[in-house]
Design a protein that fits this description.
The complex is a heterodimer of chains A (117) and B (115).
Chain A lengths: L3 E2 L4 E5 L4 E3 L2 E2 L6 E8 L6 E7 L7 E2 L2 E6 L4 E6 L8 E9 L9 E2 L3 E6 L1
Parallel strand pairs in A: 2-12
Antiparallel strand pairs in A: 1-4, 3-9, 5-6, 5-10, 7-8, 8-9, 10-11, 10-12
Chain B lengths: L4 E3 L2 E4 L5 E6 L6 E8 L3 E9 L2 E4 L8 E5 L5 E5 L8 E8 L9 E2 L3 E5 L1
Parallel strand pairs in B: 2-11
Antiparallel strand pairs in B: 1-3, 3-8, 4-5, 4-9, 5-6, 7-8, 9-10, 9-11
Classes of the chains: A mainly beta (117), B mainly beta (115).
C-alpha cells in the first residue's frame, strides 16, 4: 500500500491566488514527520515546511502553511498569493519513527503546479 | 558554497562499466542520505549514514550498489557492472542530525545515463 498519496498529478492556479496541494499518508507509527519539498524544472529539491506528528499547531513558513489533520491522516500544503516562480513539482514526504536506525523519507509521486499570469 | 555538493553533475557510461558518484554534505551535518529519482519509480531511498556507519541500507537495489562515507563527511556511491535500468538522477541529502524531525537538504544530483 502507498504510504504517501498525492492525488493531483497536475494543478493550475492563477497568479496571486491561493492553492492547496493534497497529501494523505498511512502509518501505524505514532511518531512521524511530514515534509514538503519543491522541485523546479532545474532539478534541485528545496525543503519548504515540516510538521511533526505531535505538533499541536499547523506549521507555517512565509507563504507556505500546512493544513495538518491527524485523524484524517492528511497534510495538505497551502501556498498563499501564488507567484510565477512557484511553478514546480511539489512532493510530500514522511519519515517514520524518531530517526536513529531508520533514515528514509518516503515520497509521494508529486503534484505539478503551474501558475498562470 | 554552503549546500550539498554532488559530482559529477552528469555521467554517461557504457553498460557494464563501474561508476562512482560523490557527495559532499553540508559542513557539520552528521547524517547523509542517497536517493535516486527516475520517471517510472519516483524518488527511492537507497542508503542512510549516521557518521561513517550505515544503519539503514535497505534501499540498495542489488549487491552491485555500495556506498561508503569517510571522516564523517564525503560519501561515494559505487555502482558496479552498470545496467540500463540504473539510469536515473542520483540525489544526495544531508541533515544536521539523524533525528526524524530534521529536514534533509538535497544536492543538485548526478544524472547517470547508461548506454
Amino acid at each position: 500500500a502507498q504510504k504517501i498519496t498525492q492525488t493531483q498529478p497536475g494543478m493550475f492556479v492563477q497568479e496571486k491566488e491561493a492553492v492547496t496541494l493534497d497529501c494523505t499518508y498511512d502509518t501505524s507509527d505514532p511518531s512521524y514527520g511530514l515534509f514538503w519539498y519543491k522541485q523546479p524544472s532545474s532539478g534541485e529539491m528545496i525543503f519548504l515546511i515540516y510538521q511533526g506528528s505531535y505538533d499541536q499547531q499547523n506549521a507555517t513558513e512565509g507563504r507556505y502553511s500546512l493544513n495538518f489533520q491527524k485523524a484524517r491522516k492528511s497534510a495538505n500544503l497551502v501556498i498563499s498569493a501564488s507567484q510565477l516562480g512557484d511553478s514546480a513539482m511539489y512532493f510530500c514526504a514522511m519519515r517514520e519513527g524518531h530517526g536513529g536506525s531508520q533514515g528514509n523519507l518516503i515520497f509521494g509521486k508529486g503534484t505539478k503546479l503551474s501558475v498562470k499570469p | 558554497g554552503a549546500g550539498v555538493s554532488q559530482s559529477p553533475s552528469n555521467k554517461v557510461t557504457e553498460k557494464g562499466k563501474d561508476v562512482e558518484l560523490r557527495c559532499d554534505p553540508i559542513s557539520g551535518h552528521t547524517a547523509l542520505y542517497w536517493y535516486r529519482q527516475s520517471l517510472g519509480q519516483g524518488l527511492e531511498f537507497l542508503i542512510y549514514f549516521q557518521g561513517n556507519s550505515a544503519p539503514d541500507k535497505s534501499g540498495l537495489p542489488s549487491d552491485r550498489f555500495s556506498a561508503e562515507r569517510t571522516g564523517g563527511s564525503v560519501s561515494t556511491l559505487t555502482i558496479q557492472r552498470t545496467q540500463q535500468e540504473d539510469s536515473a538522477v542520483y540525489l544526495c541529502a544531508s541533515s544536521l542530525t539523524g533525528w526524524a524531525n530534521q529536514p534533509q537538504h538535497f544536492g543538485d544530483g548526478t544524472r547517470l545515463s547508461i548506454l
